[in-house]
User: Fold this.
Amino acid sequence: MTISMYTASIPVSIHSLNNLIAILEKGAEYAEAKKIDPAVLINSRLYPDMFPLSRQVQIACDVANRGTAKLAGIEAPKFEDNETTFPQLIDRVQKTISQLNTLKPEQIDGSEERTITLEMGDKVTSFQGISFLLYLILPNIYFHVTTAYDILRHCGVELGKKDFLGQP
Assistant:
């Protein structure tokens, strides 16, 4: 049995982003219960040279949004990176999921060998669609969702592996 590019990208990305919403909701509930200014959590980072929680969420959304759009051969909508509250971050993730839900299998299936070109700094790099998905899009989504999870967990939010994995 083969797996389609659509099946390997859209449902998987949506699943991770839905888990991210649940993680953020737990962060918001924790801040309220512990009487912590939510901005403290939203601006927290694991190490001084790492991005804060807000940026981790934005990047996870951008990678899912822009990466799948490239696979589909369309221009991705751009979102401003101006979220400063848990409701705004959750809304950003929901908008990304809504965008992903507009993509149809026929737009993405067959993109395995499509050449995807990215400007990365002053370099232009090309990938085949399958490599782009497996070695760039999915690992980046997982990295930034994991880092968001880790930031909140480090701040004391009661999160476990099931929060990251969600329901299959």
